[in-house]
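Notes on consecutive records. When two proteins share a document, each keeps its own sequence and its own token line. Never mix them. Below: protein one.
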Amino acid sequence: MKNLRDVWSSRFMHYIGQVQKYMQFIFTGHIAIVLVFLIGAGGYQYSEWLKIVTTDFPAEPLIAIVIGVLLAFSRPTTLLREPDQVYLLPLESKMAQYFNKALAWTFWSQVWIVAIVYIVSIPLLKAVTELATFDIWAVFFLVVVLKYFSVQGEFSYRYSERGHFIWVDRFVRAVIFGVTVYMGLQTKPILASIAAVIGCAYIVFFRKKSVGEPVPYEHFVKLEQNRMMSFYRFANYFTDVPHLRGSIRRRGWLDWLYKFVPYTKGNAQKYLVFRTFVRTDDHFYLWLRLTVISAVIAAFVDIPVVTWIVAGALSFATTIQLKQALISSGEFRMDMLYPLPENARDLAVKQVVRLAMIAQTMIVGLSGVAQPMFYVTFIIVFVVSELTAKMSKSN
């Protein structure tokens, strides 16, 4: 049996390889352009808002709440697999070596998120508070330290409680760490230290409680499977992920939509494809997420060119991915037994995609109705979707 540190290292390299494999499909050219415009537009909007923000804006409590929540979500990355429940059982007493490596990666892979959020908030703190530069960066250091303890704390809680009521643990840590950050921003080091000590005591309690407990392999394996499945589902929006099957949900609250596609003899394929779109999580949430992102940009970014570029790019992404997802169905379907024209499903997919994109056009266009030249957004989203649907190949 290899050293457990070597086991972690080999699994980590495989994990990084898998992430890099799909990241090259996610961060393609048009996505990079959209991100550049989004970051640029967001930075411009933020800088303009800072010029007019008043000094009574509740920056400290707002930042403390956001940072506290981000600190509380510290899900450990263990990379454990289902066979480990058997093969690593004899080495249970030495699993600390494995988990130490896992928690180190968890910390470094998550700390940058909370660090970036805090750094972005620094101009706001300088605009509405009288905090000195030293005090601001002292709180930054405090946030990094709290993230380390939060990672250790969530792991210890999951270890001792098998993950039951994890939301309670996260809520407690969010409150404690949020108060700690708030007291730090209020330049009250004694109160911040007291809050931090309470948080550490809370974490130490579950750490001691986990001593002597058997490793909860089943919980950590399930947690790891869910984490990787979330990544694969996200990657599946950009490229085909083998053996990934989307879950199906009833979504009865959307039954009224079927009125737009009546169930008739000559409409069977269109009705089937439409139900597939509404009830399949991957298809429906793909459309929903990209539509919401585009609508938010249209509503809050008052730079028309940026709105048009983002709306056009997301319209292209939605159309081509939705079309390919609905057409490339390799499973056996009962409609294959009937003497329907070969292009019946392709035509049905095009019609359903057109309905979905008309809905996206209306939502995105109406979201930006308060912005200048909002009507151009309607045209761009619809034209891009139509051109994409006609020019993209069918499988």
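Protein two starts on the next line and is unrelated to protein one.
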Amino acid sequence: MLVGVCDFPGSYAFPPAGYGGIERWLWAVAVGARAAGADVHLLGPGWLTDLEAEWVRKPVRLEDVTAGSQAERGLRDAGYDLLVVGHEYPSLAAWTRTWHELDCDVATFQHSPVFQHTKTAFDGKRSRLYCYSPEMIERYAPHQPIPELAVHLGLNEEEPPAVAGRDLVWLGRIDEEKAPHLAARAAQILGRRIRIVGPIFDEDYVRQHEKLLTADHVEWVGELGGQAKTAALRDASVFVYTYARNYVEAGAAVFGESLRAGTPMAALTWRKGTCAEAALCDQTGAIAVVDPEVDDETAAGKLAEAIEQAQSLDHRQVQVSGQLRFDPARHFEGMATRPC
């Protein structure tokens, strides 16, 4: 099988070293496809040029290809069986024109809870949309979505054997939608230290919760990548997952990242059918499902209870389960199979 993994015209490098959503997923698919025995071409100019020593890199984007051009003939002659792309592409007329000339399947994962696709973007067979949670499946039901847990990878993030860590950790972009202040308050209730890892996206949010986010039990680490990021996850006793009441998580990378590192998760959710429910089980984490009408203090208290529950889980078993469920080769094989 020949697979083309198309880069995404964003601001992050391919593959990313730290933060990134679609970018980390595309790299995981490329790695997983190769591990599953497929031939892989990295399509698009965004991929790091030093990958050429080990990967076939073709710096062309389908949406920039003109009809009848040499670039189009080259893509057609390559004989791709599957293209893997960011979720916007199948709704982009210029991209789909070229894709239709290649006579291959296309697969993508829904990384946004709000992006609107064209009615003809997916048929559930030749063009396939994958969604993480029951919540996302319901939101994109008209496009015949297929349930699948997304796998994300960055550079040099191979996980060493699990250990029983010490402090709590929260990782993600720091803004109102991700709500790390709830994690900080839950840690404070328990008298635990917590490390906040990630880039600041909203300075106003940080100022609003400054007293809590700068308390003595909170350590700000900043954005990490590679081995430093993996170590921050592995060395924690529990990963604390939060988000805002009105936010819909399309498919957070942190579930796979934390579990593969052997760190159990304590998740705060506001309804059933979320990504946390899809990703976690009794052996890998604890979920506090809280009525969105309650105040932050009550929610943080429920999250604190989930942290204590997750604390008792076996880190080695968490890692075994995480590496099975969030295996890049398994993820690719699930996406590469056309439904009957």
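For the record: The radius of gyration is 20 Å.
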